[in-house]
Every structure is written in structure tokens, then in C-alpha cells.
Design a protein that fits this description.
- By secondary structure, the protein is an alpha/beta fold.
- It is built from nine helices and ten strands.
- It has a single domain, classed as 3-Layer(aba) Sandwich (Rossmann fold).
- Helix content is 33%, strand content 28%.
- The model has no long low-confidence stretch (mean pLDDT 92).
Amino acid sequence: MQSTEYLRVSSLHAFYGESHVLHGMDFTVRRGECVSLLGRNGAGRTTTLRAIMGLTGKRTGSIMINGREAVNLAPHKIAQLGVGYCPEERGIYSSLTCEENLMLPPKVGSGGMSVEELYEMFPNLKERRHSQGTKMSGGEQQMLAMARILRTGARLLLLDEISEGLAPVIVQKLAEIIQTLKQRGYTIVLVEQNFRFAAPLADRMFIVEHGQVVAEIAQHELQEKQAFLQETLGV
């Protein structure tokens, strides 16, 4: 079991200034697994991803990434451990073209996808490669944000609300891409409001309330836990 663990978050507390947001987050993610953090707005799911990346204020507890303790590391050091973060706001630079945005982050590991491979996976980006960042649709910007971290060689992907506000056809495309990445052995943590998007993709789901994991649901338990999910998430 130990050897297959890629990420272990233990007793994680995180703060924004005086605000105590995470109250002892505990969960593990196995190599090649996709897990989803589900919960209502304000439960602490996005803060969990930001804390793993070192982007919150004070953190206590433990964040083991591929066997390395990362709770006191700076964000760039965490990225160098092979972690790619796709924030909810996407972070596309409006003054740069699609391709310039794609080339921006440095390599953090070997085995990153080439631009040709990424254009094959995201054909829309190939068509828009000379377009300014802001001229791209929300769906194209989301694909660009994902493609950008895949080029770096990151093997642990932290994806925050990637389906939010996008047309169903784009959401379907993103689901297919995540399935492909799973087949290629990537380890993925999804924070999602869209239960119907996350449920088929996630091997396990962690329900988050008040900065803590309150339940873990495996893919095969979804049917029997429907009432609980309805009550907890309103899905």
C-alpha cells in the first residue's frame, strides 16, 4: 500500500491571515488514481489544493508528495516535485498568444508532453495557437490551462473547478481528456461542484465539510450512498 501512495495529506491545518480554514484534512491518493474533493462552497476544498501547492499562509500537519515532506516547501519547490496546479481563475495571460501561454511554465520533470502531442489532445488550441489569450472562449482557456501543466512533466495534477461555467460539449471533452490522462498513469485530484462530471471520473470521493474530510465514498458505493450525497451536497 505504502509504495502506491503518491499524496498523503495528514492533520493539515491552513490559515489565511487570522482565518483558520482547514481543520485537520486527512486523505491519501494512490499513484494513477483520480480522486475528487466534494462539498459545498466554503467547505475548504480549494484551500486544500492551494495548501498542497504552498499558496496559503501558515500550514501545519503533513503533506507527503511521492515520499517527500512538502508542508514547509515554497511553491516552486513543490512544483519541482512534479505537481501541476490548474487554478479556478485559470491564470491565462491576456497579452500573450495561446502558444506563448502554453510555453510559459518551466519544465519540472522529464516526460512532459510535447506541443505536438498537446495539439493532438486539444485540437482547439492548435486552431487558436496565434490568438490572444483573452480572445479565447472560456472552454479554450480551460483547455490551455490544463495543457500548460501537462507540458511541464508534472505527474500529480490538482484541478480546481475545471468544468465550471462551460458548455456541456466542452465539459464532455474535458471528461474524455481526464480519462485519457488516467490511462497514462497521471494522479489527479479534482475539486468539483459539478457532481455529475466528477462522479464517473473519480475512483474515490472525499466529502469535505468545515475544512475536514467527513466521508469517503468509493466509485462502487455511489448508488447506495445516493441519499447521503443528496443530503450533504444537495445533488
